[in-house]
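Hi W., the 2-O-methyl-1,6-di-O-phosphono-D-mannitol complex you wanted:
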Amino acid sequence: MTDLVPIARSLFAEGKGILAADESVHTATARLASYGIPTSAEMRRKYRDLFFGAEGIEQFLSGVILFSETLREKGNDKKLFPKSLAARGILPGVKVDLGTEPISTSPEELITQGLLDLPERLAEYKKQGAAFTKWRAVIRIDGDQLPTASAIHENAKRLAQYAKEVQTAGLVPILEPEVLLEGKHSRARARAVIKEALTTLFSVLEEQSVDRASLVVKTSMALSGSESPRKDTPEEVAEDTLAALMESVPRQVAGIVFLSGGQSPDQATDNLGAIIRRAREVSAPWPLTFSYARALQDEALELWKGKEENVPAARAAYLDRLAKVSAALAA
Ligand code: 5MM
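Structure:
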């Protein structure tokens, strides 16, 4: 039986965090298109290589979350991506959910798919070199109406079943109940919803006897909605985020990672720094780090534009952002 706890804990090595590079074909296509980059399978491979082939990323990254397609692909160095990451001491992980669909009884809310053939897929991903996995539930705030308690509970049940199957397969699960930034809501509402989603999740995990010590939680920060005029200070974000987490996440978990959720790279960096400082003040019991996609990639994509000649400048911007986010962990 693999001891999953040291693997989960290694994601929190000092000064290091996770690059989320697990955009599905649909999301990668939209992301690249937003920078004027035409998409094809080869362009997606080049997109991954831009971020995985950069020299020195192992100073800042403990892990990378891949999309299943990328697990089977090779970098420009002709090495399989998971192998070349592992050779540099970076754990390869994989997103195993298959996206979301509307809930039939509450069509404005989403439920995550992917449990049906999960054991077979996990065995395959493990053979391909994955050491950890991720499943994302999507929770939308709309006034006091959404999310419904039932959507939160249904998503928690699937997250728990996912975690159990992943641990049985000898892999570390990252459980991501993402509370979306999109909306007009207040930071207080985001804090309450994050707390509710995590409290429900841990109650279902307990019912289903899921091992907490070898799981990682991936959470949103408590922020005012993106359509709210309110601009939160990093200290406000940190106070509310830590309050939600201290009231809902048991001390035994291997650690908590943050998603960037559409924040600018600077915002995501500054808020992380403030969260780390606040965690120290309140003696938070778990290790914390980042698991960003957009906040680590945006500046590089802006420079890259899908062109070979722009790779050095794009990688320099990416390494610069990684250095800043890593420095925020020591804030
Ligand atoms: C919330 O998205 C996760 C973190 O990314 P950000 O830091 O940009 O918020 C990310 O891992 C996400 O789960 C993947 O990009 C996959 O998304 P899709 O929509 O393709 O499932």
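Residues 20, 22-24, 27, 65, 95, 99, 136, 178, 259-261, 292-295 surround 2-O-methyl-1,6-di-O-phosphono-D-mannitol (CB under 6 Å).

W.
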